[in-house]
Structures are given as C-alpha cells and as structure tokens.
C-alpha cells in the first residue's frame, strides 16, 4: 500500500470491482466483477495498471474521494462531470489529484455506471482471488459508505498522459444476440417469436444481479416446476410473470425458473450501461 482514499461521498451504489471470481460456481459463488469490463480495462490501461487492478464502479450518482497523497486517476465508462478541488477536470483521460483535494465524480449524463481507476489500483484484500464486491453472496468489501478508507497500491512508472481515448457511447437501443435453450421447449412457439420480434424495455428494477425487462409476457407450454439447475452469465430466465430477466455478474449460480435462451457475453457490457426505459431487442445470433 502506498496511499489511501477517503470516501467523502459514496453515491447511490459504489463498489470495488475487478475481473471477478471465475471458477467457483460449483461452490455457489457468483463470478461478480465489473459489469462493463471493457470500460474498466481501458481506464486501467490509461494509467499503466495491470489488467487485474481493482477499480470503483459507481451507479448513476457518482462518488467523491480524497487522497492522502497525490494520485493519478481516470474516470470513464458512463460520461459524467468531474472536478478536482472544485475545478472542472477532464473525463476519460488521466488527471492528477493532489493530496487532500477532493475528486468529485458527478451524476451520469448518459449510461449508468462510471469507473474510477487509480494508479496502483484499489488494494483491498482479495477474497477467493478477487477484490470484487459481490452483492448476492456478500463476498469482498461492502459497498462504499461515507468515511470509508480504501488502500491504494503502488503505481507503475509514470508514462506520457494521452489526450483522448476511444470510449464507446452508452446505448440508445440495446441489441442482445442470443441462442435458444436450454429450456426453450418449455415455451410456446408464439412466445419464442415474441421474444425475438417484440421490443422490450429496461426495467427500473434492474441491478447487478439481473437486467429486468418490461414488455410482453412469454407463455409457457407447461406450468410445472423445474428442479434448481446451474445458471450462467447471460442466461435469460423467465419468472412466473413471463418477463425475461438477463442474468448479469452477481447472478445466482442455480435457479428453478426456466432459461429460454442465453445472451452472448460480449453484449453484456452495453447492458450494464443501459438506463431504465432503454429499448431492448433480442436477436438470434
């Protein structure tokens, strides 16, 4: 540890995230990790951090931090206003935050989740090989609260700071390619056509566990019950109300509602940045 960050304002939901806990589903441990992994990776690369360096993932309202010594940071992901010591600072490129100055990450102007990377990474203790906060199992550090103090690791040797970076814009429409199965036969042919032809919308009840949808219900062939079976990232589970739920990184490892299809993992970063009411189209892929 080479420094500390004090949380001045924790925001609606700010968590520590890295690439997550892969390979522990058989123990009932979800993967967790940054929902927008490409955004986390780009922020880390801009600082010279390794790919596994932990960052902060904010939700809608940002956060504010005070370092005890000068640090370089990148705020990326969902666009938002950034200030350092009350003065406007650039978003999406490395900026220097002096000791004692407050880095304020404002509310998003588009998208949902911003990422705050710090040179050296957030150096909380790993649990099962990851520093990620898992909201479902409770593993990893708790979501941030005002007054929390976070350790910062040793930064890589300073390199020239770039003037710009290729940040993708948050989606105005979410296109989710999927493959049917394993329980597509539990649904009527009309339901399968509806899933790939109707326009759904992101529900305001979505979270890190799942992207909930609003739209036409999917009719089942049978109303029977399934034994709990394994769930994967991107699984499209259909609860009794018939509205599809796309499982994200904090999803349960087992479930008893039928999975009609699975969304391509590469499409889930965009899902992480889709605010409530964003149109969704499921397309066979």
Description:
- The protein is mostly beta strands.
- 9% of the residues lie in helices and 29% in strands.
- The chain has 3 helices and 20 strands.
- The strands form 4 sheets. It has a 7-stranded mixed barrel with strand order 12-19-16-17-14-13-20. It has a 6-stranded antiparallel sheet with strand order 7-6-9-4-1-11, with no helix packed on it.
- The longest helix has 11 residues, at 37-47.
- The chain is elongated.
- The protein starts with a strand and ends with a strand.
How are the SSEs placed, and which strands pair?
Elements: E1 3-9, E2 15-17, H1 37-47, E3 55-57, E4 63-67, E5 71-77, E6 82-84, E7 87-89, E8 95-97, E9 103-105, E10 114-118, E11 149-152, E12 174-180, H2 189-197, E13 200-202, E14 210-214, E15 229-230, E16 235-237, E17 245-247, E18 254-255, E19 259-263, H3 268-272, E20 279-284
Parallel strand pairs: 12-20
Antiparallel strand pairs: 1-4, 1-11, 2-3, 3-10, 4-9, 5-8, 5-10, 6-7, 6-9, 12-19, 13-14, 13-20, 14-17, 15-18, 16-17, 16-19
Q: Output the helix-strand order.
A: EEHEEEEEEEEEEHEEEEEEEHE
Strand order of the largest sheet: 12-19-16-17-14-13-20
- The rough form would be described as elongated
Percent range for β-strand residues: 25-35%
Condensed summary:
The chain is mainly beta and 285 residues long.
What labels would you give this structure?
seven-stranded mixed barrel; six-stranded antiparallel sheet; 3 helices; elongated
């Amino acid at each position: 540890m080479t420094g500390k960050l004090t949380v001045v304002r924790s925001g609606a939901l700010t968590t520590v995230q890295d690439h997550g806990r892969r390979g522990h589903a058989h123990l009932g441990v979800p993967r967790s990790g940054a929902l927008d992994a490409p955004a986390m990776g780009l922020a880390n690369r801009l600082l010279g951090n390794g790919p596994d360096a932990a960052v902060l993932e904010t939700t809608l309202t940002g956060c504010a931090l005070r370092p005890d010594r000068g640090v370089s940071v990148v705020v990326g992901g969902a666009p938002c206003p950034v200030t350092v010591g009350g003065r406007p600072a650039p978003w999406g490129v490395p900026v220097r935050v002096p000791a004692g100055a407050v880095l304020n990450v404002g509310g998003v102007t588009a998208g949902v989740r911003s990422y705050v990377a710090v040179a050296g990474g957030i150096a909380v203790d790993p649990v099962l090989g990851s520093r990620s906060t898992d909201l479902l199992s409770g593993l990893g550090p708790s979501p941030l609260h005002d007054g929390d103090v976070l350790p910062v690791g040793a930064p890589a040797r300073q390199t020239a700071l770039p003037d710009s970076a290729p940040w993708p814009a948050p989606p105005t429409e979410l296109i989710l390619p999927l493959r049917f199965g394993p329980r597509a036969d539990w649904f009527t042919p009309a339901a399968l056509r509806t899933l790939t032809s109707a326009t759904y919308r992101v529900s305001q009840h979505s979270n890190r566990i799942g992207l909930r949808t609003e739209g036409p219900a999917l009719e089942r062939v049978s109303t029977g019950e399934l034994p709990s079976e394994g769930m994967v990232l991107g699984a499209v589970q259909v609860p009794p109300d018939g509205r599809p739920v796309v499982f994200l990184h904090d999803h349960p490892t087992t479930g008893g509602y039928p999975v009609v299809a699975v969304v391509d993992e590469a499409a889930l970063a965009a899902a992480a940045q889709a605010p409530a009411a964003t149109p969704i189209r499921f397309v066979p892929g």
